[in-house]
Amino acid sequence: MFRFLKSIGQEMKEVDWPNFRQLRHDSATVVSTSLFFVAFLALVDWLIQLFLKLFI
């Protein structure tokens, strides 16, 4: 078990962690993409509701 935990520690030291600028850019990309899909799906939902109200 201790050998396993030691190997995890060694692997974590070899990870190339992003710097603050990369992290900020990637986070902004995720947030903006999420907001785009929220708006798109809200529009599609509204259009489907409108379409169904016309025929019901």
UniProtKB/TrEMBL annotation:
GO biological process: intracellular protein transport; protein secretion; protein targeting
Keywords, sorted A to Z: Membrane, Protein transport, Translocation, Transmembrane, Transmembrane helix, Transport
Keyword Nucleotidyltransferase belongs to the record: no
Domain of life of the source: Bacteria
Gene Ontology MF, one: protein transmembrane transporter activity
Subcellular location: Membrane
One GO CC term, this protein: membrane
Annotated transmembrane regions: 30-52
InterPro entries, alphabetized: SecE_bac (IPR005807), SecE_sf (IPR038379), Translocase_SecE/Sec61-g (IPR001901)
Annotated Pfam families: SecE
Name by which UniProt lists this protein: Preprotein translocase, SecE subunit
Species the sequence originates in: Pediococcus acidilactici DSM 20284
